Amino acid sequence: MRNTAIVTGATSGFGDAIARRLAADGWRIVATGRRRDRLDALADALGGPDVVHPLCFDIRDEAATRAALQSLPEGFQDISVLVNNAGLALGTGAAQDCDLEQWRAMIDTNITGLVTITRLLLDRLIARRGLIVNLASIASNWPYPGGNVYGGTKAFVKQFSLGLRCDLSAHGVRVTSIEPGLSESEFTLVRTGGDTAAYDALYAGANPLQPEDIAETVRWVASLPPHVNINSLEIMPVSQSWSPFKIHRE
Ligand code: NDP
Ligand code: 8X3
Description:
By secondary structure, the chain is α/β, with parallel strands linked by helices. It is built from 8 helices and 7 strands; from the N terminus they run βαβαβαβαβαβαααβ. It has one domain (about 5-235): Rossmann fold. Helix 1 (about 15-25) links the parallel strand 1 and strand 2. The structure holds NADPH dihydro-nicotinamide-adenine-dinucleotide phosphate (NDP) and 2-hydroxyethylsulfonic acid.
């Protein structure tokens, strides 16, 4: 009997690669996202309904999230790994120029959606002494211009992960915050509203992380012995490092 992992945001980027990598390791996958055609294609690619169960819902919608989890067929109900990957950034502008709707969408997705599905699955994860892997970001740790609310949501994800550790350690549930840096996916197209020139410029010559790099990290975390917890893991491409503090002069 295969163990079951749920991967949110499995329609592209990290989530798609994580689902593929865990399935290759023998996991059953519950794959979530809003784009049903991509979920169905992923299921077909990974061996059909015995291996992947697609769940199409908007993670910002609590009722839809509850209904989706309640609809899981036998064989996919005993979830022992939750990969909280669904998330997004919207905009790169200074706070004073930002659209409040975009701020709300990031908070509703990256914080409220993540917290909701986590709470709804905690009993199952405790019952199976499971694992929660949360996709935070280098933006959890380092501020940058235009990062404002996105960075705030990812700092929440990291701190929520560490807080969960405190509450769940007595139940044998492991929690890991993964904090990737520059990574090539649809993330930048979503953030810029489909600006392919911005996408090309960001990644040009940078040899960024690829979704498969993050998927391999998640596979490694999931394969560790049950007494080992990776608390947080910051990952950058070699090309990315730090700059000096900036100083604004009058
Ligand atoms: P992608 O844009 O490629 O994938 C994002 C995924 O999230 C998609 O599957 C999308 O599915 C899902 N998603 C977004 N909003 C919702 C929603 N409301 N309901 C359900 N699913 C949703 O980006 P990445 O793979 O790069 O990003 C994955 C995670 O990693 C995010 O949390 C991101 O913040 C984080 N991250 C990304 C980095 C990067 O540079 N790429 C670096 C560090 C962290 P759909 O649209 O079908 O609903
Ligand atoms: C995505 C990485 O640096 O664009 O979380 O915030 S960054």
